[in-house]
Amino acid sequence: MPTPPLNPHLPFGENKNADWYGKDILSVKQFSRDDLQYIFGVAHEMRGMVERIGTFDLLKGKILANLFYEPSTRTSSSFTAAMERLGGSVIPISEVKYSSVSKGESLPDTIRTLECYADVIVLRHPETGSAAIAAKAAKKPVINAGDGVGEHPTQALLDTFTIAEELGRLDNLTVTMLGDLKYGRTVHSLARLLSQFSGIKLNYVSPDILKMPKEVMAEVAEKGVPQAEFSSLEKVLPETDVLYVTRVQKERFEDPADYEKVKGAYVIDPEIMKAAKQDMIVMHPLPRVGEISPEFDDDPRAAYFRQMEYGLYVRMAVLAMVLGKA
Ligand code: CP
Question: How far is CA 326 from CA 253, 315, 317, 322, in A?
C-alpha cells in the first residue's frame, strides 16, 4: 500500500488537483476498493502522527462547521477532535434550537450561511437525502454525518478500517448484522461498502418488523454477495467473523407500541458468545442501550471501543482529503 505524503510543515496552500479536493462525502457508493486503500493509508499516517506528536498543523487556518440537527456523541466529537488534531478550528452547532433554524431558516440557507465562515461542513440531519440537498446548496464540501435512515458514510469507512485493522483482511469474511436493520443507517452503508469485496457473506438477524430494506439488499445482490435473513442469532453465530450489533432506534418508530415489542430482542453476553469463534470481533456503532452486556466488554473480541478510536484517524483522513492536504 503506497504511503501518501503528508507534510505538517506546510500549513498553507492546498493541492487543488488532488482527487478528493473539494468533494462532498454523501454516500459509500462514491468509494471504490482503491479509494478505501488510499483512505486507510492516510488514516495510518494520521494515527502515527497523533501517536508521535499529538496535534500538528496540516489544516491550520481551516475551519469546520459541525452542524448537528440530531444528537451525537461520537461523530460530532470525533470530527471536532480530528479538526483540532490537524490544527484547524471548529464552529460547533449541536443545539440547532439555539440557532436560526428555530426561527424557520431552511437547510439550504443555513448551509449558505455557514460556508461564508467555514471551509467544510459536517451535517447530521433527520431526513434522508438532506446531505445531498445541503451539498447542492454549498460550494464548499459537505460531509454526510447521517441523514435519517439513509447513510452514514464516514461510519462505514471507520467500520471497514476497524475490520481491516483487527482481522487483517476485508475479503473472505462472514459478517452478521444484528438488531435494527430497517432504521440503522450504519448497516445500510456498511452492507453496501462490504459488497465490493470478494468472498463476503452477509447474514441479517432482526425481528420481522426491522429487516434490512429491500433496496439495500437489491444493491448488494447486484454485486453477487450472498445474503440471508434470520430471526435468531443461534444458527449463524458459529460461522461469524464480524458480529455487527445495532441499537433498536426508538426515535424512528411511528408507534411506540412497536418499539416495546422489539426492544431487548437480542442481548450479547459472555454466555451467548461461547458459541462464537475466538478469532472474530464484535462491533457496534454505539450508543448501546442494553444489546451488549457490559460483562462482555473485557473480552478481547469486543472491538466496539477500539472502533471509536479508529474513527478519529479515518475522519482526520477525510478532512485532509477534501481540503486538498492528502
Ligand atoms: N456511531 C454514531 O454515529 O454515534 P453518535 O450518534 O454518537 O454520533
Answer: 41, 12, 7, 8
Task: Looking at the structure, tell me whether residues 101 and 223 fall in a common domain.
Answer: no
Residue of 72, 155, 252 best suited for mutating to test ligand 1, as the one with most atoms within 8 Å of CB: 72
- The C-alpha atoms of residue 38 and residue 3 are separated, in whole angstroms, by 8
What is the pTM assigned to this prediction? 0.93
Q: Measured in angstroms, how far is the CA atom of residue 40 from the centroid of ligand 1?
A: 20
Among the listed ranges 42-46, 50-54, 263-267, which one has the minimum average pLDDT value?
263-267
Which atom of ligand 1 has the smallest separation from the CA of 146? 3
Domain containing residue 171: CATH number: 3.40.50.1370
Q: What percent of the chain has pLDDT over 90?
A: 86
The average confidence (pLDDT) of the chain is: 94
Chain-centre distance for alpha carbon 88: 22
